[in-house]
Design brief:
The chain is an alpha/beta fold. The chain is built from 21 helices and 19 strands. The longest helix has 20 residues.
């Protein structure tokens, strides 16, 4: 098969782009540098045989809500979502833990126990977005610009409520928490969801992260794929293959060729050249500049180089002899646990990329609580990550940081250390070496400071289009950003198809030249993750 569309990278966005093009009848080839497809959606036995750990991402509220995945028959290709009883819990030093449940009333009742009125105010604040979730979903998980979702919200909500959403977009999480909650424990609960972003709790733009993740939890939950994150990647690859598409692993693209302002080919590390008139790149902005070189206009290339990564990440996976013995019962039933302590501790920690506190802020996952396929009978898996400055000497401090992380878990779950059968650690450098899109160990696809929250990677009405004709960008660096949902990939592919139809209708298409080199040769293919 001679492909007429090439995809660089087989992460969720790359696979969503490939599927969209294949559904439209294109002959699609996905080129993946790694030995298996999926990008940051992968599962491995990192510690001991029989313990299945998600190497990078693990919990997918955006995936469960994704309008892109919803239109694909992924269940027929092996995907099954598993929901824990509790979406997330936030243990406090006094042994209690406010929690997010899919049930809005149950969540509110739990908050009400911390202070009279806290639950009622959460109902009044979050309830309207949950009730109008289709419009909210179109706003946060739609292509840029999110005009359709905002129009739906404008028609369904009172003007005051819509203006409030605009205000929340600009608010610090601290300001929102102080408006909603009287109890420090309730405020700490909200902060826990805000630290999924990289903006400090007192920084503009941190409140919208908390709102989005909590509304997603009420609407669709915080599930994970049964058997591991790799099952989602496997389902996407399987569906693509059923459409005639191909994924080729071990094929690292090193150059995008162009002539006359149009793409012509890609060259892979082996030296092989593949002609191409349509390329969708699931890569980070600076990587795109490195691949396309001087073919990109200088101003656009300079703008891509200014795109900032988020904080670095240290991730630990554990093979456990039993479930984590949390003091708080809510944490024992949660798929995700926010380990950070009290309101004062969270506020004192600053932004995730500013410093490393003695007691780290951590996101912890324990998928085996709801999915026993992750570990041998009676055993469990868990993972946690903490983030800090990119400039830190992570390798030198690695063992000390792991010790701090385990001490922080032990604080809320006495006896945790005794449960550890084995551990596996990935520092920022290792994360990037395994996956080039995790720049400096940034797992979010770039910083979410206010200037990069919406206009990703550059201010443009069509951020997926590049000035080089036939080349489109579809990574987490484009709107709506990180998380596993495939929205950017589908948006880029649809834009490419629309512009191709427009060109066909107005003039005869003239293929350009290509990089010098041999015709496409035989290459190894990789199947399902």
């Amino acid at each position: 098969m001679t492909p007429d569309a090439l995809i660089i990278g087989s992460g969720p966005n790359g696979l969503a782009a490939a599927i969209t093009l294949a559904e439209a009848g294109r002959r699609v080839l996905v080129l993946e540098a790694a030995p298996v497809p999926g990008g940051a959606v992968a599962t491995e036995e990192l510690t001991l045989p029989g313990f299945r750990h998600d190497t990078y991402s693990s919990v997918y509220p955006a995936g469960a809500a994704s309008p892109v995945f919803a239109r694909m028959p992924l269940e027929r290709h092996g995907l099954r979502w598993v929901h824990p009883e509790v979406c997330y819990a936030h243990p406090l030093p006094d042994g209690r833990a406010p929690a997010l449940y899919r049930d809005l009333d149950r969540t509110a009742a739990g908050l009400e126990r911390f202070a009279p009125g806290d639950g009622e105010r959460w109902l009044g604040f979050a309830g309207p977005y949950v009730q109008r979730f289709a419009a909210f979903q179109s706003t946060i998980l739609g292509a840029f610009p999110p005009a359709s979702g905002l129009t739906q919200l404008a028609l369904q909500m009172r003007p005051r409520r819509l203006l409030e959403l605009g205000r929340v977009l600009l608010m610090p999480a601290q300001a929102l928490a102080e408006e909603l909650f009287a109890a420090p424990g309730s405020r700490a609960w909200l902060y826990g969801s805000a630290i999924h972003g990289d903006v400090g709790l007192t920084g503009a733009g941190s409140a919208i992260v908390a709102l989005g993740l909590n509304v997603l939890g009420h609407a669709v939950g915080w599930p994970s794929p049964e058997g591991g994150a790799g099952r989602l990647a496997g389902a996407l690859v399987s569906y693509l293959e059923s459409l005639g598409g191909t994924v080729r692993c071990g094929a690292r693209v090193v150059e995008i060729g162009a002539r006359g302002g149009r793409v012509t080919a890609v060259r892979i590390a082996s030296g092989e050249t593949l002609p191409a008139e349509l390329i969708v790149a699931d890569v980070m902005p600076r990587a795109l500049v490195a691949l396309a070189g001087e073919a990109l206009p200088p101003r656009y290339a300079a703008a891509l180089r200014r795109y900032r990564p988020g904080p670095a990440t240290l991730k630990v996976d554990w093979a456990l002899d039993g479930p984590i013995p949390w003091t708080a019962p809510e944490a024992r039933a949660a798929g995700t646990v926010h380990v950070g302590g009290s309101e004062d501790e969270l506020l004192a920690a600053g932004s995730p990329g500013s410093k490393l506190p003695e007691r780290p802020l951590m996101l912890l996952g324990q998928q085996s609580i709801a999915d026993p396929t992750r570990a041998p009978p009676g055993k469990h898996t868990a993972w946690a990550y903490t983030r800090g400055p990119q400039a830190l000497d992570w390798e030198r401090l690695r063992d000390r940081l792991v010790e701090r992380m385990e001490a922080q878990v032990e604080r809320f779950a006495p006896g945790f250390r005794e449960m550890i059968g084995a551990r596996h650690v990935l520092g920022p450098g290792q994360l990037e070496r395994r996956n080039a899109n995790l720049v400096g160990g940034d797992v979010g696809g770039g910083s979410y400071d206010l200037d990069q929250l919406i206009f990703r990677p550059v201010p443009a009405l069509a951020p997926y289009r590049t000035p080089l004709r036939g080349l489109y960008l579809a990574s987490a660096a484009t709107f709506p950003g990180g998380a596993v949902h495939g929205v950017a990939g589908r948006a880029a592919a649809r834009l490419a198809l629309a512009e191709e139809r427009m060109r066909t209708a107005t003039r005869r298409f003239r293929p350009g030249g290509g990089l010098p080199g041999p015709p496409p040769g035989e290459g190894g293919e990789c199947g399902r993750a």
